């Protein structure tokens, strides 16, 4: 429940902070208005941490730059065309705080692209009304501390509701990316999206096509880094908006045949995502949210709809859904312009996510454990988390057995790593030594010999150079 008295006190503290006070004095002395706007005001009222400060003013960009130069250590005007000037303003302790100051805006959109025709405005109220949601359309004026809330943002904070300041069809028609932001803020704040706003998202979802893949990707990643991305994903799926950029997720809602029974793949995937986040926080409590891991958790079963087969007797199979899903994820993430490292990590995790379950059925040899580590490579820690998160059975005995089996494999990996430098498994002889021993030049035969020695290393561990050379000569002399 929002404590308004405490929230108002936090607004006062925000206005009194040294950086805000310095800027307020500078703009007032220059004869211009200044207000903290958007997220910092919302978060102060909610008791959440505030980060970079955003301001709005009636001053034009050239005037903003002139005002902030004497009180800042650096300035940048990369957003000048949109009325935004950035600066680093020092605190008394010597540390500097990054701020952005934007001229009041009254943008208009042409409906064919997400780029607005930039028009500067003259009033704070008009600037606030053009923003995405009422809870982001509040401002705190300084140095005269006053909360300006023309669209009912405080009431929506109290109610835990996301609503656009104007008709949502107009707001989303102006900027379709706001539909994705609705899902993200729902997850970030734990708020419900107002019914009319949800309806507008469903009706206008096709307009997302004018937004660049990079911008869509950015919002998806921000959603996944929230505390509860599942809430936002449900908004995307329930409105159909996700079908415009990630239809594989809604396809997980498989039709249930009355004669064939299997778990709800969509709900299972959301549970895996939640559990992966819990494991991630436990293992790496101080690390930033892992977007690649969370993508892999959400998408790990997207190959199931394509591979589903209804068998006699009511069984349902999804043979090779791991390999199929890996390829599907790679293609989709490429379309969303994710970077190569993220794409490789997600596709590899999906490809390997079933590998462990063979271990649970019977103890692996040391060779199998080595291969598991080698195949996972740099994704091993993520694979540990994904595999544990993929256990969603309600059968406590089965869940405990699988957890115990994975504890065991992690312990064996740790033991082998101590013994054998498991993270860098390679043959005991390199390519140059292979050529010397066999008397052959560089070429395909060296590669075949190298692979033979790598398999030997994985199967039997460290044998020593003399024994490895003997085995290599025997392999080479044997009929191929």
From TrEMBL:
Superkingdom, natural source: Bacteria
Family annotation (Pfam families): HD, PolyA_pol, PolyA_pol_RNAbd
NCBIfam families found in the cross-reference section: HDIG (TIGR00277), tRNA_CCA_actino (TIGR02692)
Cited InterPro entries: HD/PDEase_dom, HD_domain, HDIG_dom, NT_sf, PolA_pol_head_dom, PolyA_RNA-bd, tRNA_adenylyltransferase, tRNA_CCA-adding_enzyme
Cofactor dependence: Mg(2+)
Domain HD/PDEase residues, every copy: 261-404
Organism in which the protein naturally occurs: Microbacterium marinilacus
Name by which UniProt lists this protein: CCA tRNA nucleotidyltransferase
Alphabetically ordered keywords of this record: ATP-binding, Magnesium, Metal-binding, Nucleotide-binding, Nucleotidyltransferase, RNA repair, RNA-binding, Transferase, tRNA processing
């Amino acid at each position: 429940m929002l404590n308004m008295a405490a929230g108002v006190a936090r607004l006062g503290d925000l206005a009194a902070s040294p950086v805000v006070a310095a800027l307020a004095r500078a703009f007032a002395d220059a004869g211009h208005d200044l207000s903290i706007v958007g997220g910092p005001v919302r978060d102060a009222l909610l008791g959440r941490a505030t980060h970079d400060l955003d301001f709005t003013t009636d001053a034009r960009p050239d005037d903003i730059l002139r005002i902030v130069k004497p009180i800042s250590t650096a300035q940048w005007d990369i957003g000048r065309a949109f009325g935004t000037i950035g600066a680093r303003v020092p605190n008394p302790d010597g540390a500097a705080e990054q701020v952005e100051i934007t001229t009041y805006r009254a943008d208009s959109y042409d409906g064919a692209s997400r780029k607005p025709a930039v028009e500067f405005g003259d009033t704070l109220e008009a600037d606030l009304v053009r923003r995405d949601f009422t809870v982001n359309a509040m401002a705190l004026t300084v140095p005269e501390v006053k909360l300006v809330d023309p669209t009912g943002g405080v009431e929506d904070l109290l109610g835990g509701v996301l609503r656009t300041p104007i008709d949502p069809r107009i707001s989303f028609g102006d900027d379709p990316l706001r539909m994705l932001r609705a899902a993200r803020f729902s997850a970030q704040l734990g708020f419900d999206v107002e019914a009319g706003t949800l309806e507008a998202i469903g009706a206008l979802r096709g307009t997302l096509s004018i937004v660049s893949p990079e911008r869509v990707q950015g919002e998806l990643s921000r959603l996944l880094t929230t505390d509860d991305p599942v809430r936002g994903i449900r908004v995307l799926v329930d409105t159909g908006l996700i079908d415009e950029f990630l239809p594989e997720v809604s396809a997980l809602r498989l039709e249930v045949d009355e004669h064939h029974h299997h778990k709800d793949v969509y709900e299972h995937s959301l549970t895996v995502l939640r559990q992966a986040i819990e494991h991630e926080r436990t293992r790496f409590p101080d690390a930033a949210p892992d977007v690649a891991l969370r993508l892999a958790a959400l998408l790990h079963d997207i190959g199931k709809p394509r591979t589903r087969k209804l068998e006699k007797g009511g069984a349902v199979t999804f043979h090779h859904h791991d390999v199929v899903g890996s390829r599907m994820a790679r293609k989709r993430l490429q379309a969303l312009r994710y970077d190569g490292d993220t794409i490789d990590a997600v596709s590899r995790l999906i490809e390997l996510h079933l590998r462990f379950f063979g271990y649970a059925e019977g103890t692996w040899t040391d060779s199998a454990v080595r291969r598991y580590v080698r195949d996972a490579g740099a994704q091993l820690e993520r694979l540990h988390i994904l595999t544990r998160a993929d256990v969603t059975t309600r059968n406590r005995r089965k869940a405990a057995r699988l957890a115990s089996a994975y504890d065991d494999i992690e312990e064996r990996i740790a033991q082998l790593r101590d013994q054998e430098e498991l993270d860098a498994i390679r043959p005991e002889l390199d390519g140059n030594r292979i050529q010397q021993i066999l008397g052959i030049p560089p070429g395909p035969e060296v590669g075949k010999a190298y692979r033979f020695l790598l398999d030997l290393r994985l199967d039997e561990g460290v044998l020593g150079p003399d024994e490895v050379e003997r085995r290599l000569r025997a392999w080479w002399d044997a009929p191929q």
